[in-house]
Amino acid sequence: MFRPITEVAHELGVATENLEPYGRDKAKVRLAALEQAAGLRPPGKLILVSAITPTPAGEGKTTTSIGLAQGLGRIGKRAALALRQPSMGPVFGRKGGATGGGASKVEPSNTINLQFTGDFHAITAAHNLLAAAIDNALHFRSLDLDPRRVTWKRALDMNDRALRRVVIGLGGPGQGVPRETGFDITAASEVMAILCLADSPADLRTRLERILIGSGKGGRPVLARETGVVGSMAAILAEALLPNLVQTTESTPAFIHGGPFANIAHGCNSVLATRMALAHADYAVTEAGFAFDLGGEKFFDLKCRTAGLNPAAIVLVATVRALKMHGGSALDALKDSDPRAVERGLVNLAAHLDAAAHFGKPIVVAVNRFASDTDEEIGVVVDYCGSRGVPCAPADVFGAGGAGAIDLAERVVTAAAAPETPLAPLYPLDWPPEQKIERIAGAMYGAAGVLITPTAQAQLRKAATLGYADLPICMAKTQDSLSDNPKLRGRPTGFTLTVRDVEIAAGAGFLVALTGDIVRMPGLPERPAALRIDVDQEGRVVGLQ
């Protein structure tokens, strides 16, 4: 049994009047807590946890983030976490739960992985209210909006490939205007991105108002404010905007809020949750989705640039099994000891170290240790990092929790003590979008060039015409490779990155460049995690990992 959330909040410095408990183990935190904390203490240091290119099962980045925060507590530092909420798509799909594992979890893990405080449902409802208002306006012809040029889809927090493209409005007169549309998973919804980037209720509403929903006569842009339902959307999201407070297995405070995917969205928890952690702790540990080429780059170029955040250090998570994969080992042989495969796979770690170096922050490598790893294999990674002058620490956070991350925590504290450097985004906003894309592709992925298809070029011209050319870029790319080809492991070279389409996320404040076969509504695998989840005779959820 974990401590009452009121006790966790009290020790963190969150006043009782700023807490909205959801039972005894979780709570919403009112935004007034930020103002109160600002008058009492300076903000803490922000630690970004990212990773190398993962295996399909993931490399324990969230588990490492949790273990690191617990390790900071073990060495006497006041730490808090700021993490994303899991989407039920992956929970029931390939990856399963996303609350850490073993001795480094956030609790109540089952609740967080499923309904939690209802934030995802609110985001889905707000998204779909706008979709319903659009079709209602088409039915009554109350808005200058071309049915063929509606870009706003519907959303659902579940993997369902059959909903990627659908036809609605069938059934004859009175059933709506027949047209083709589709569904995005809630984690890819622009409403999700808006909630995660908003810094206040007023900012939330402003961003909702400027959502581009389609075009009218002569290509006139039509914005969400013209539907008249933005106020209702804001009302649905009012409670969801407040960060959620829970705790780890060692009672470390954790703000879990927002959950955009990094392969199709910007991959970071909410700005407000990050600010809550910074306001109440000396070290705020946060993560960005997937590897540094995706989540890490977006963390700096989208989230930090928008919110004025400036990390003190970067932690790159590597695992022996991922390095073996990049070294050419088959997935079913990863458990076998093979230091040579680890050594060959270091090219992927090198690529991410080089990518992270562009942002000028101290870097620490965390080797997330699995039970099957040998000392020799771990030593290959430690020796390589030493040859590059990069601090490296093995961490057994799954098996030992914070005790297994003490060395890592000490190295992070040392790195974060370096003199602060200004935030240095990868590109200036006044560059043409094509140049921004080329910069990301070259510096982060190692691409030799970029091919922008005619469809994408037309969208970029439209963005420039509508005044959106100065927005930053959110790359939608596979997480399985540094390139846009998921089959290319290691450190691909000489490839051309193809941008097949571009979407305008005016409310969130970025342009989405779509590459490869990336889709905004994932599908379930042949054997989804949903097959192993059940409820026992005592009403407890079982099988949710």
Question: Mind explaining what this structure looks like?
Answer:
With 545 residues, the chain is an alpha/beta fold. It has 3 domains: 12-117 and 240-416, 3-Layer(aba) Sandwich (Rossmann fold); 119-237, Domain 2, N(10)-formyltetrahydrofolate synthetase (2-Layer Sandwich), CATH 3.30.1510.10; 433-515, Roll (Formyltetrahydrofolate synthetase, domain 3). It is built from 18 helices and 24 strands. Strands 1, 2, 3, 4, 5, 6, 13, 14, 15, 16, 17 and 18 form a 12-stranded mixed beta sheet that branches. A hairpin with a 2-residue loop joins strand 5 and strand 6 (104-107). Helix 12 packs across helix 13 (339-357).
What oligomerization state is this entry in? single chain
CATH class designation of the largest domain:
Alpha Beta
Class based on secondary structure composition and strand pairing: alpha/beta
Count the helices. How many?
A: 18
Radius of gyration, CA atoms, in whole angstroms:
23 Å
Helix coverage percent of residues? 25-40%
Estimated share of beta-strand residues? 15-25%
Mean pLDDT: 96
Unreliable parts: none
* Backbone shape: globular
Please identify which CATH superfamily of the largest domain we are dealing with. Answer: P-loop containing nucleotide triphosphate hydrolases
Largest sheet: 12 strands, mixed
Q: How many structural domains does the protein architecture include?
A: 3
Termini separation: 19 Å
